[in-house]
């Protein structure tokens, strides 16, 4: 147990230690300062802007910025949708994989354009190399860059006084991709490729089995097909961009995606690295580092509490496993102990549990174990983090602007308690900002509960479940929580590849991505036009421990009030069934 605690602590220390300098670097990128990569990348940036006729100095209003984001996403949606449908007629398809159905194409396209990366398909079986590279990997970059760009626009909204411009979306998109996402992805791709992750355009390989297998019908199987492909490049940005879509069907539990402990460490740190760094970028951007540290503290406390719950639950296992001494649940030098069902033996309890908590805290969704096999409270933590709106660090950019929505809600409620007009970072929070903040905070609960409710009411949904009863309902709730949190992970065993599930989950992903995004830009535009308000004796400090406590309380209250009835029917009911 001591070894596992040290692993948990080590992961967090490394994560924060790397995120602080990255946050400083991202701030320099945001404001256009020179970085150590400028000498190499500035000519590339200038060339791209010249070819695309981008004026970096041009300022967009929030409406124009939102229109640019919407049009860019719509074009990406159409392109990827057609690529999925027509991949059977296109090159770089050595296995001759046919095009996807219209509803699976819609779901996959909505998933990757919204940075969700929910997968109702198995990558090595249903997608060509061209679709994986030109479609999914490209969207992994640009959807992540769009989220960071909106965060940058919001920071400018706080800083600017009586202005309308929030920067230039196209310039932001280019700089974020060139200076942040591509360099980090190259580093991670090289490291994991050195550990055995494939990066090739060769056709799948066929090898002889060491021990032939006889099937039930008497067929003797002597060979196995080994799937290959340009995996390392996609896996790097899937983690760094909080995308999570695996190159192979079982994601980072696959030995070709995640061969060993070193590749596991790099990928696990990568999936929260940029979201954590965004907190420190925010503090520098609003000219008050304490504000970034306060938001970071709130998120870190929530993450630590959730990690402790999941770790204790998985280490304890279940009464059914321990019954009659059939399974030794104690940790030792020869075994991980606890609930190892659905987990890779090369990772054990600590690395698997940490990954599951990190990936559902971020809107990442990649998995190195099967969440369907976790204990009830292990699954409860995973679902609740997504249902809170992915604000426990969350996705790149979108996680932090989601938490800022809760911060605005917190100062408004605190203002009502003391009878003052609420203020946040020197700007008055008025009805317009509150309406938009409510949209940011409530879009996720509304989409998840409506989607899960409709799916549960349809008899045909039962055919997609791997389990009956409370756990079966958890599979449905998890699927829509994952879509509504723009996460993308799933309880393994839930078959979502049906017309209704593909379309409904796709619509949930689109709604939860773009409603908060546009509402955030509206807040940014409104704040930029306001005058700055001087701090007074009645101003609520938003950088101290009291505010951190209030912020955590509001986040949990919204989540608890919205989802407790649903969670009571799923993981909570399953827990009491387990101990009965």
> How would a crystallographer describe the biggest sheet?
2 strands, antiparallel
- The total strand number stands at 4
Radius of gyration: 23 Å
Portion of residues within helices: 55-70%
Shape: globular
Oligomer status: single chain
Q: Flag low-confidence runs.
A: none
Describe the structure.
The chain is mainly alpha-helical and 580 residues long. Helices cover 63% and strands 4% of the residues. Helix 14 packs across helix 15 (431-457). The longest helix has 31 residues, at 129-159. The protein is globular and about 80 Å long. The two termini are 27 Å apart. The model has no long low-confidence stretch (mean pLDDT 90).
Which short descriptors sum up this protein?
4% strand, two-stranded antiparallel sheet, 63% helix, 19 helices, mainly alpha, 580 residues
SSE map:
Blueprint: H1 2-31, H2 38-52, H3 62-86, H4 102-113, H5 123-126, H6 129-159, H7 169-194, E1 205-214, E2 220-226, H8 231-240, H9 261-285, H10 289-316, H11 319-322, H12 348-361, H13 376-387, H14 398-418, E3 423-424, E4 427-428, H15 431-457, H16 469-484, H17 499-528, H18 545-569, H19 571-579
Antiparallel strand pairs: 1-2, 3-4
Helix pairs in contact: 1-9, 1-12, 2-7, 3-4, 3-6, 3-17, 4-17, 6-7, 6-8, 6-17, 7-8, 8-9, 9-10, 9-12, 10-12, 10-13, 10-18, 12-13, 13-16, 13-19, 14-15, 14-18, 15-16, 15-17, 15-18, 16-17
């Amino acid at each position: 147990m001591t070894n596992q605690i040290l692993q948990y602590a080590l992961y967090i220390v490394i994560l924060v230690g790397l995120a602080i300098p990255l946050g400083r670097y991202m701030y320099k990128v945001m404001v256009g300062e020179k970085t150590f990569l400028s000498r190499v990348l500035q000519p590339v940036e200038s060339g791209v802007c010249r070819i695309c006729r981008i004026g970096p100095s041009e300022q967009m209003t929030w409406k124009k910025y939102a229109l640019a984001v919407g049009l860019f996403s719509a074009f990406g949606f159409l392109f990827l949708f057609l690529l999925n449908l027509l991949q059977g007629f296109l090159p770089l398809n050595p296995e001759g994989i046919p095009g996807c159905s219209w509803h699976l194409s819609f779901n996959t396209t909505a998933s990757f354009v919204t940075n969700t990366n929910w997968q109702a398909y198995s990558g090595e079986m249903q997608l060509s190399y061209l679709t994986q590279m030109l479609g999914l990997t490209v969207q992994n970059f640009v959807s992540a860059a769009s989220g960071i760009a909106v965060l940058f626009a919001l920071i400018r909204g706080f800083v600017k006084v009586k202005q309308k411009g929030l920067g230039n979306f196209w310039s932001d998109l280019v700089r974020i991709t060139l200076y942040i996402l591509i360099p980090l992805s190259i580093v991670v791709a090289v490291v994991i490729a050195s550990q055995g992750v494939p990066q090739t355009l060769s056709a799948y390989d066929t090898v002889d089995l060491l021990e032939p297998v006889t099937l039930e019908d008497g067929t003797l199987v002597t060979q196995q097909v080994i799937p290959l492909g340009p995996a390392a490049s996609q896996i790097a940005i899937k983690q760094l961009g909080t995308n999570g879509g695996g190159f192979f069907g079982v994601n980072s539990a696959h030995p070709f995606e995640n061969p060993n402990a070193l590749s596991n460490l790099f990928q696990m740190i990568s999936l929260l690295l940029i979201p954590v760094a965004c907190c420190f970028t925010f503090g520098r951007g609003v000219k008050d580092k304490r504000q970034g540290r306060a938001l970071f503290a709130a998120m870190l406390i929530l993450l630590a509490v959730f990690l402790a719950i999941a770790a204790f639950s998985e280490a304890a296992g279940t009464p059914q496993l321990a019954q009659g001494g059939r399974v030794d649940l104690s940790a030792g030098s020869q075994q991980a102990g606890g609930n190892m069902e659905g987990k890779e033996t090369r990772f054990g309890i600590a690395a698997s549990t940490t990954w599951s908590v990190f990936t559902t805290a971020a809107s990442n969704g990649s998995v190195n174990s099967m969440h369907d096999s976790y204990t009830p409270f292990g699954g409860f933590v995973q679902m609740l983090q997504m249902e809170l709106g992915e604000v426990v660090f969350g996705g790149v950019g979108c996680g932090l602007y989601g938490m800022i929505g809760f911060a605005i809600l917190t100062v408004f409620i605190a203002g009502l308690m003391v009878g003052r007009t609420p203020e946040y970072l020197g700007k008055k929070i008025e009805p317009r900002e509150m309406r938009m903040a409510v949209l940011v905070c409530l879009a996720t609960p509304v989409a998840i509960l409506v989607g899960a409710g409709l799916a549960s009411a349809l008899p045909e949904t039962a055919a997609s479940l791997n389990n009956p009863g409370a756990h079966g309902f958890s599979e449905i709730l998890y699927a829509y929580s994952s879509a509504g949190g723009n996460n993308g992970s799933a309880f393994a065993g839930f078959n979502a590849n049906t017309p209704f599930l593909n379309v409904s989950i796709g619509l949930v992903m689109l709604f939860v991505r773009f409603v908060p995004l546009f509402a955030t830009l509206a807040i940014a535009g409104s704040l930029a036009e306001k005058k700055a308000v001087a701090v007074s004796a009645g101003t609520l400090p938003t950088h101290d421990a009291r505010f951190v406590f209030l912020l955590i309380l509001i986040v949990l209250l919204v989540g608890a009030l919205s989802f407790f009835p649903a969670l009571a029917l799923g993981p909570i009911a399953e827990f009491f069934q387990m101990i009965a």
